[in-house]
Amino acid sequence: MIREGLDQPMQGAVSDIANTTVIKLAELGIPSLQLAWTMHDAQYWHCAKTVATSDVIKMIADVATQPHMINGRMIPFPIKMDIIDDQNNHYTLAEYTSRESLHEGMVAST
């Protein structure tokens, strides 16, 4: 019971960071960017392939990786961003951005 009580503040902080990220991404006003689902501390987002340009992907990554103040220290949060195209092929962000066209997929970021 004590362990669960000690874990609650961390879970609450992670939830606050996740909610803040959702709000900040929504404030960007990116057309068709939608929170698809969440699982534990991960978020999965969808964005229309016509919108998934390198500039938009960078904007999403910049918001998602913003450091947050935890116990008086600024802590950066890494993300794993995958691109899923119309044929359900998965690409890492590096693989996708190295492709000739950035208008072939949907974005799912965690």
Structural class: alpha+beta
* Strand order of the biggest β-sheet: 6-5-7
Count of alpha/pi helices: 3
Largest sheet, described in full? 3 strands, antiparallel
How far is the first residue's CA from the last residue's CA? 31 Å
Principal-axes shape call = elongated
* Helix percent band: 25-40%
How many strands appear in the DSSP assignment?
Answer: 7
Low-confidence stretches: 100-110
Provide the β-strand percentage band: 25-35%
Order of helices and strands: HEEHEEEEHE
Give me the Rg, rounded.
Answer: 16 Å
Mean pLDDT: 77
Oligomeric state of the chains present here:
single chain
Number of domains: 1
Any overview of this molecule?
- The chain is of the alpha+beta class.
- It has one domain (2-109).
- It has 3 helices and 7 strands.
- It has a 3-stranded antiparallel beta sheet with strand order 6-5-7. A two-stranded antiparallel sheet has the order 1-2. Strands 3-4 form a two-stranded antiparallel ribbon.
- The radius of gyration is 16 Å and the shape is elongated.
- It starts with a helix and ends with a strand.
- Residues 100-110 have low confidence and may be disordered.
SSE topology sketch:
Elements lengths: L1 H26 L6 E6 L2 E5 L7 H11 L3 E3 L2 E3 L5 E5 L4 E3 H6 L6 E5 L1
Antiparallel strand pairs: 1-2, 3-4, 5-6, 5-7
